[in-house]
Amino acid sequence: MLNRVQISALRMNWHTTVAFSQDLVSAHESGIRWSCRSGIRKKDYAALLRSSKSLHQVAALPIIKTRSGIEILLITTRKSRRWILPRGWATKGLSLSESAAREAAEEAGVIGQIDDRVIGTYDYRKRIDAGYDLDCHVFVYPLHVLVHQLDWKERGQREVFWCPIEAAVSLVEDDGLSNLLSHLSKNPKHPYLTEFISRWEYKPWA
After folding, report:
1. Which residues of the chain carry a pLDDT beneath 50?
2. 150 and 88 part of one domain
3. Residue 102 dihedral angles phi and psi, to the nearest 5°
4. Residue closest to 60 by CA, chosen among 123, 24, 112
5. Which of 25, 71, 153, 173 could tie 106 with a disulfide, CB 3.0–4.6 Å?
6. Among 189, 179, 206, 190, which Cα is nearest to 65's?
7. Domain that holds residue 23
8. Do residues 116 and 178 both lie within one domain?
9. pLDDT for the residue 79
């Protein structure tokens, strides 16, 4: 059994590790290696993760303005092929919004201007290869897309799809994300979103 000192140290190391990881599985494996060097068994480490509080992630909400209105970009997860926003762990040396922009570039090939203010948050459960779930709290940052690259890091691993926010609501399966998009779709004059869009100086996409 873990004592209080081990639990405290392990929690601090876990949150430090995953906070700056691009991939939860690699971060998890890294933590397992660390725990083994510290004399903590894998099953104790896994039990700690299952009982830990929500972990924080960042996501980008890629947006373009077409002649028919606002559209956002969805991507699929690599395994279950569910529709989600580009998301991941914060990157060491980058702000949360910059980390979200990096995820969008790597997972969806979109580059643009990221806002440093959160447009909303949502919660979901992330399935780990070891067979259990982790609760994640996601901070979403709007991204004004200027370029959609023809080739990017995870092209071929995911599908990408531009669609109106209203259509995205029915496509995503995460209840928290669906509720957030539903709120945005029902409030087209949302002060924050309206102010963000008003700063765009470009011609609408075709």
Report:
1. 1-40, 45
2. yes
3. -65, -40
4. 112
5. 153
6. 206
7. 4-51
8. yes
9. 83
Spell out the alpha helix ranges (H) of 38-125: 42-51, 96-108
Same domain, 10 and 73: no
Predicted confidence (pLDDT) per residue in 137-146, tens digit: 999 999 999 9
Are residues 115 and 90 located together in one domain of the fold?
Answer: yes
- How open is the CA angle 22-25-30, to the nearest 5 degrees? 90
Give residue for tokens 């669609």: 163
Token digits of residue 193:
């979103």
Position 190 scores a pLDDT of 64
pLDDT tens, residue by residue, 102-146:
999 999 999 999 999 999 999 998 877 666 778 889 999 999 999
pLDDT of residue 10: 39
pLDDT value at residue 78: 84
Which H or E run contains 162?
strand 160-164
Neighbour tally for 203: CB within 10 Å: 8
- HEC sequence for 103-141: HHHHHHCEEEEECCCCCEEEEEEEECCCCCEEEEEEEEE
Which residues is 172 bridged to in the sheet? 83
Report the relative pairing of strands 55-66 and 133-148 from DSSP bridges. parallel
Task: Give pLDDT, residue 204.
Answer: 53
CA distance 59 to 57: 7
Residue 39 lies in a domain: yes
The predicted structure's pLDDT at residue 32: 31
Looking at the fold, whether 35 and 127 belong to one and the same domain comes out as: no
